[in-house]
Amino acid sequence: MSSNLAVATGEAQHPGIYQNMYWGWGLAVMLGIYISGGSSGAHLNPAVSIPLWIYVSCVTPSLSAARHLTNTQRGFPARKLPVFVLFQILGAFTGGLIAIAIYRDAILYSDGGLIGSSTGIQIYTQPKDYVKPATAFFTEFAGTAILVCSILALGDDSNSPPGAGMHAFIIGLLTIALIMSLGSNTGGCFNPVRDFGPRLAAMAMGYGTEIFTAYHNWWIWGAWGATISGGIAGGVLYDTCIFKGGESPVNYTPKKWQGKANEGKLDFLQMFRQHTQARNLETAMEKGEVENGGS
Fold first, then answer.
1. Which residue ranges of the chain lie beneath pLDDT 50?
2. How far is CA 22 from CA 18, 25, 28, 48, in A?
3. Where do you find CATH 1.20.1080.10 in the chain?
């Protein structure tokens, strides 16, 4: 966001140098992974976290050099997703507040006010007026699919993954490539909280509630819908064409599906603190009375 605002409000110093924005975003993603990878597996994006729960789970091997890259266990628990997504939003919201606070004077000097169609779209994402909604949706869908497919490849030990410490660097370069090639139509979201958190921050700082209805309520069906569905599609693509392991739901047997359904039910019961039912189900799974995901 800060790199976007630097270009938008300082054109005399940065005439047309949009590479500033591209490299700013890519390096920011890289640093975010390096900083948070050891503690959380660098879950910075719900459109990545959700497919990793479905297809890979234990995102740690693919994003964190601090973890053992040989650990390819799949099974990121669904009960963690709400907490992860909440803190992803809070992190993006905080970043938006900081960026707007730093550039508020420049924004007011440049525009004379807080205008959503001008500096606002440098903070959150929004397709250009001439871009059709279908084109905008597919842009985000395709970009996020490429992102997730690439992350799965980077975490797959059977597919020549990079050495320790290189994952964050490569994902940063991937982010730059995606924004350079696909960011013009929509602003390059590929991460719903990258739009939603800063959008909330913009509203809190005075941009007004109308930014949530801009471009046909883009933030709902574009920033969230297109990215998450694209991420899931990217996982299907990778596991269908490349990954052949039995850990993938794409390759499950009927028996495995039944076991995973029981594991999902167990996660659901634990999430909603139905401890007695959860213990009974867990005991039945351990005794082999019902199938478990490891069957």
1. 15, 57-73
2. 7, 5, 10, 20
3. 2-251
pLDDT of residue 56: 62
CA angle 243, 47, 145 (to 5 degrees): 50
Q: What is the pLDDT of residue 217?
A: 97
Q: In sequence order, what are the residues at sequence separation of 6 or more whose Cβ sits closer than 8 angstroms to the Cβ of residue 230?
A: 47, 140, 141, 142, 143, 144, 145, 148
pLDDT of residue 138: 98
What CATH number belongs to 2-251?
1.20.1080.10
Q: Which amino acid is at 175?
A: T
How do residues 137-162 score in pLDDT, each as one tens digit? 999 999 999 999 999 888 887 777 78
How many C-beta neighbours within 10 Å does residue 62 have? 25
Element (H, E) at 23: helix 19-40
Q: Which residues contact 115 (CB under 8 A, 6 or more apart)?
A: 207
Taking each helix axis from N to C terminus, what angle separates 81-111 and 192-202, rounded to the nearest 10 degrees?
Answer: 50
| Distance from C-alpha of 149 to C-alpha of 221, rounded to nearest angstrom | 21
| Contact between 59 and 52 (Cβ < 8 Å) | yes
How far, CA to CA in Å, does 267 sit from each of 226, 272, 278, 285?
27, 9, 8, 13
Task: Give the pLDDT score at 11.
Answer: 59
Per-residue burial over 264-281, b = 16 or more CB atoms within 10 Å of its CB, e = otherwise: eebbebbeeeeeeebeeb
Rounded to 5 degrees, φ, ψ at 243 are -80, 130
Q: What does the pLDDT read at residue 75?
A: 55
